[in-house]
Amino acid sequence: MNATSKLxxxxxxxxxxxxxxxxxxSLADHIQxxxxxxxRIAENAARGLGPVFNPGERVDAATSPVWMWLLAVxxxxxxxxxxxxxLLGIVAAFAAILLCAFWALELGAAASAAASAAALLGALxxxxxxxxxxxAFSGMETPLCALAWLWGVRALVRAWIQRLPTRxxxxxxxxxxxxxPEFVLLVVGVGLVAxxxxxxxxxxxxxxxxxxxxxxxxxxxxxxxxxxxxVPNTWYAKKASDWAHARIGLSYVAGFVRGYPWVxxxxxxxxxxxxxxxxxxxxxxxxxxxxxxxxxxxDHFEFHRVFxxxxxxAAALLGAxxxxxxxxxxxxxxxxxxxxxLAVVVHAGKPRVQPRAFxxxxxxxxxxxxxxxTYPADTRLGLFAVGATxxxxxxxxxxxxxxxxxxxxxxDLSHEHVCHLDIGHERGDPQYVLERADVVVFFAAYxxxxxxxxxxxxxxxxxxxxxxxxxxxxxxxGAFVLRNIEFxxxxxWAVLERRSS
Length: 501
What we know:
This protein folds into 2 domains: 3-348, no CATH class; 359-498, no CATH class. The N and C termini lie far apart (75 Å). The longest helix is centred in the first third of the chain and has 28 residues, at 81-108. It is an alpha/beta fold. It is built from 22 helices and 5 strands. It has helices at residues 3-27, 33-46, 65-77, 81-108, 113-119, 121-128, 130-134, 142-161, 169-179, 183-196, 202-227, 233-238, 243-259, 276-296, 305-308, 311-326, 331-348, 359-374, 386-393, 406-409, 430-436, 462-476, and strands spanning 381-383, 397-399, 439-447, 480-488, 491-498.
């Protein structure tokens, strides 16, 4: 990397640090419910109880083993996990932005000041977009995944497409897959393009991936021995493959493109001769990932969270294309590129995260603490959002959606879902929950006044709707009663409590 590129990267690092420091006050209190799931598992692991949600129940509710074990370290040291997770998230997001710029400068062969500046376009889009930074404070693995996947794809592209000396590409691929297993799709995409273009033979691919294959098989064997399944329980809870899900998934992808209008510009890479091979490899890998997302029906998290895992890949390709165009001899191309880049940066820089976007999670955390003071330690909670309430209560949990329950996770999908909010919330068995739980917490059923009837509780997503109907029957036959838990001054949450015999 030349001196100009190094200076550009240093300027980006400074600008990103300023942006992060500016945004921290408004984003710092955005731990999401699934982040608390990791917190509970990490603390159990740190205490020697195993990487499980409920001690004594060998169920893998953590999609990212790397993230869970990273959090287990501060948990063992007694460090607050919301602070530790946020610090790790900031570091990962910052590193992902810098790596995005580094690869763009590398691919764009930026030599001039104009080309170096243009190469930073994609990284700047990440730095100024508060949706990407929000997940640094979510408690989830999203920024770490974005970093690991970007590094892993870069290593494989260098080894298989560009035929450059690359150390440890197989190990980086293994790490990326252990951060989130869907990385295998990206490996397949890059490998397919390498074989079609004959830049790498099948034996070359296998030689590169040998460490990942050997260690990966050993990991799956150990995972099966401990949990009884080679894949996380979350895979069973969220798997789907039908036209209804695909239709919702296609709508999800369209919404992502509307929210990130610069993404289609990465197609420019296949029209630039020097980037064509790399462009095809990255695009095919991304298309396989998009097909997987469509099959599942998308994702219910805010800001198209599932695509944030691959957003730095797209941003790096955009930056590389911009650098190549800026280096072209035609002056107007550079001017046009600068104008488009400025317009996109201004668009991406508009704040989109509302200050109280995840307030319900904070309420759920306070509810958990109140439940711990209200009920005995062996009280089993039935929860539709197991993260915040499950973590702060410390009580055993019956997961009504199946993330931490293998029985519910393997129930058949309903075909009555009609919108994206049902994705990931479809499996359920109300009678199973009612038979096992002592207290069931209705989803988001909080208000400044007491609930007088179950008719006042919103149905919400499909599984919750089914449970509310079953709860009415349980109250009618005298097995349960409606109770209000005051989790804050003048704030009540409706729960279903088993009637004492």
